[in-house]
Amino acid sequence: MAKCIYCKKGGWFQQVSSIGFCDACEYEHKPRLADSIRILLSSQEIIDRSKKADTKLSRISDARRHCLILKDFETKGISTITPAPSETLKQIDRVEREVIQSEISDAIFVANQKAEDGNTDAAKLGGFNKGIDRLTKLMDYGEDVSETERAISRLRSGRDSLRAELLRRKAETWVAKGKHAKAVDVLIEAIMALRHDSTPDREQASILNALQDRIVELGGAPPK
Ligand SMILES: [Zn+2]
Predict the structure, then answer these.
(1) Pick from 102, 123, 140: which residue ends a domain?
(2) Which residue, of 128, 205, 214, 219, has the greatest Cβ tally within 10 A?
(3) Which residue would you say has higher pLDDT here, 143 or 58?
(4) pLDDT at position 191
């Protein structure tokens, strides 16, 4: 007696195909199986070959979706790919974590590099902004985005303290020219920028205090 490997229906008059599907399943599920295998293989190839994290990650999502379809066949005892879909899913998760982690460390590295090497203040700060944009795109990926979130706030606070530091240096160039009033204006600008940026003020307390002390030293009045 022939029995379909997918729907398990069987009977004296049941015809099954060479891999064991009944007519209805052969029509409905075999193309789905073939499509999923094909898309999974082509996704894997692109994931390996591509150098762009967002391409890799969107293909990883495709691969996962089709691997889940194949896992449905696996739970019915039908073999599809090696390693089995349940194993392949674990690999897909691992690769996704690796891509996210390397994107995070690269974005932070590039931002810090720019902060040192940038020719202008805008270029120095721009490295952090680019890194923030890059990592914001990652927020759609991964089971746990807390690492990505932490990296984004690290970049924000790096940018915000650098902005204050650049203003502090600018103020000191006014001091060197004997223009204390101008220096005080710039230091006030730095304090206002810190108060309105996206980093909590308690994390910037030491910079804020130093700026206020400097204003007083220069004979100015710190902002209320
Ligand atoms: Zn069937």
Answers:
(1) 102
(2) 128
(3) 58
(4) 95
